[in-house]
Every structure is written in structure tokens, then in C-alpha cells.
Amino acid sequence: MKTLNPALAKVLKRLHYPLDVILTCVRWYVAYALSLRNLEEMMAERGIAVDHSTVHRWAIKLLPVLDKAFRCRKRSVGRSWRVDETYIKVKGQWKYLYRAVDKDGNTIDFLLRAHRDKTAARRYFEKSIAQNGVPATMTIDKSGANLAALEAINADREAPIKIRQSKYLNNLVEQDHRAIKRRTRPMLGFKTFRCARILLAGIELMHMITKGQMKSPRGTHLSAADQFYDLAI
Prior knowledge:
Elements: H1 6-12, H2 19-31, H3 36-45, H4 52-73, E1 80-90, E2 93-102, E3 107-113, H5 118-132, E4 137-140, H6 144-155, E5 162-165, H7 171-184, H8 193-210, H9 224-230
Parallel strand pairs: 1-4, 4-5
Antiparallel strand pairs: 1-2, 2-3
């Protein structure tokens, strides 16, 4: 018999709704272009009274646990990376979501930063390398900050990462941004940096599952929805 992820079980002790209702609401919120009030109405149509603020609280509590579980099951990525940043509004101000994909379009990693500079870029590169290994090639745009950060990393390495600066070659990651922006648009900006970081991780998590980046037991062919729910086990 399958048992709950212990970290999730601890969070659920304080949440007084059936697990399937909670997980369904959280998945819909990060998977589709729905507002919290849309979800409140959709649950009401199913005879379940859930306030929109409750759905938001569920997402903030559960997504870090599910993201951690996913990281243990994430498939390895290629060694040719395309890196770019996109804008995300937090408390009425634009912040920067650093993202990368490999040549097959698989998500490498992501990181929300308050500034777009050498320090932010280096932090992103170091996090991505720690999680996914060292790439052979890193393709960036004409950003001087990204170039300076990569050169600083290479200065500490015996075998340097090959750096390519090309706007054209980065079309793949720029196209991939659209799936994330499509989902964040109904959210009308984030109230706090912490909430933005957690919810963006949830959106990226669901996006990676949809792209087939989660390992499943051999012989199983779970839907994207079932893979998400399986992270609770």
C-alpha cells in the first residue's frame, strides 16, 4: 500500500480537506491559466466550498514539498544549454526569472532574482550546475552580465565551459518562456517575492512534467496529472 510523502503528511495535518481536492486545486492552479477565483467557482460547481485564499495557502504550503520530491525524479538533461531571463512582476516591480533549456527543449533550471547583474547571473549558473552537472556549452544572449558571470566561473575551472553569444540560438529558451508567462498572466503579479518564488517553482514543475522530464517506474505510462499526484507518495 502506498504511503504519503512524510514531509507532505506533516503539512496536511493542518489542512482540513480531502487530499484529492487539495492536490487537484494546486495542480490546476499551476497547470492552467486560471485565477484563484476561477478555482473557487469550479470547486463550487462540484459542491465543494473552498475560498480562493485557501487554495493559495495550499499552493504555498504544498509546492515546496512536491518540488523537492520532483528533483529526486527529474531526468538528466543535455550538456548544451540555452540561457535567458524573462520579466516577472512582484509587488508592482519587474524582477528577473533566469531560465535555461537544453538543445532538446528540456528545462535545466530556473531562479528568480531581484536584479539582473553579474551576481544574479553567477548565482543562477552555480545553482544550475550544482543541480544538473557541468555543461559543455552555454549559449547566452549579448548580456554583458551573463558573460562576466560565466567568465568568472570559468576562471576557477581547469576545463572551461564553452561560451556562445547568439540571439538566434537562444530562440528555443525564449519560446519556452511563453508557457510560463501564459500561466502567470492571470495571477496579475505576485504580492511577495517568497510567494512568487514558490508559485513559479510549481509552474516550472508542472511544465517539466508535461515535457516528460519526470522519471516513472519502468512499465508505467502515467498521465501528466497522475505524475503530479504521484509526487505526494
